[in-house]
Structures are given as C-alpha cells and as structure tokens.
Amino acid sequence: MESTEKRSDQRQDLVYLVIGILVFGSIWGFLEATLGGFFNMIIFPNKGAIMGGIGVAIMGTALAIYRKPSMLPAIGVVAASFKLLNVWIFVPVSYVHIINPAMAIILESVAFGVVAVFLTDKITKNSLVGAGTGALVGFTTAIAYVYFALYVTNSPLLVRMGVSGTGEFIMNHGVVQAAFYGMLLPLGCLVGEKLRTRNFLVTMRRPLYYALSAAVVCLCWGISTTAIMAGL
To answer: What is the pTM for the complete model shown?
Structure first.
C-alpha cells in the first residue's frame, strides 16, 4: 500500500511539473508576443534585455515553487514556440526573425537551468546570489547568441546593432543584459517563494487547479495569436 501511494504521489508531482512548465512557458511566450511585439514596433531601446530579464524572472518564480532546474529549458521551449505563431498565421517575416529570438529564449533557459542545478536553494533564498546568477546568465546568453546569429543563421546582427565586432556587441549588449537579468531574477524568485510558502498547489482542489491552468494556457495562446494577427 505504501508503495502504491508513493507511486501515486510521484505521478501527481509529475503532472504538477508538466502543468507548471506549460503555464509558465505560456505566460513568458504571451509576454514576448504582446509586450515584446509592442516594444519592437516602437523600437524601444534594450527591448531584448528587458524581455529576457522578464523571462528569467518567470523562470525564477517557477524554480522557487518547484525546485526543479530541469524544468527551466522546457519552459524556454514552450515560450520559444510562440515565435512559430508568425509561421502558422503567415505573417511575412524572414526566417531569422523567427529563429533568432526563439533561440535566444532557449539559450537563456538552458544557461539558467545549468547554473540552477548547482545553486537552486541559494538562488531562490539569497537575493545577492540570485542577482549574480541573473547577471551571469545574461552575459553568457549574449555571448552564445551573437555567435549563433553570426555563424549559424548568418544574420547581419552587428550592422543592425551598429557595432563593429563581436567583442563590442558582447561588452555593450552583454553588460546591459546582465544588469536587467540581475535585477529581475531576484524579484521572480521572491514571488515564487511567497507562493511556495502558501502551499497553493496543496490547498487548491485539483479540478480547480486543472481548470485554471488550462484557462491560463489557452488565454495566453489565444491572445498572442490575436496580437500577432493585429501586427505586433
């Protein structure tokens, strides 16, 4: 009986983990499609660093709640899949405008996941460690992204950014990105810790939890599709 109950608990934990991946990934993707699309439309400065910082904060919230670093890359994949809405609804954009932002999200989530494997408790409970982790993730992601854009998709990234080389891009964009990530990651972890201490996964009835999660995911995809069709 104890073995059966243990397996049941493990299955339930896995279900909660998958739902968490879908919910947090969809929220991130929704913000990329709406707020990120708006920033892109008005040519807002440092929009990539800001949206990346928001993404790392969302992952920080999920990490604080579930304590599972392995879920972070999966959250990034869900968020990056929102970029495919541009293909599905036939918005006329070149492929690099889809692949590059999607890969930036995935690189960010993988980098954070790797660091979180070793520092999960310290990241979620110590704001200084969280800020340092955010800065590290932001800087390393900028390095990985510039080489991916230049040598994999052959994007004119340096010309578009108005810099003369990869070193200048890393020092300019990487430092700004590290600053935003360092500021926003501890805030996301703080939110996650507040939710964790209230045990909302335990206190909420399963049917209600499933219904709310499904509603959040559907709303995020529906609103994002509408926003992209409207030109964001």
So the answer is: 0.90
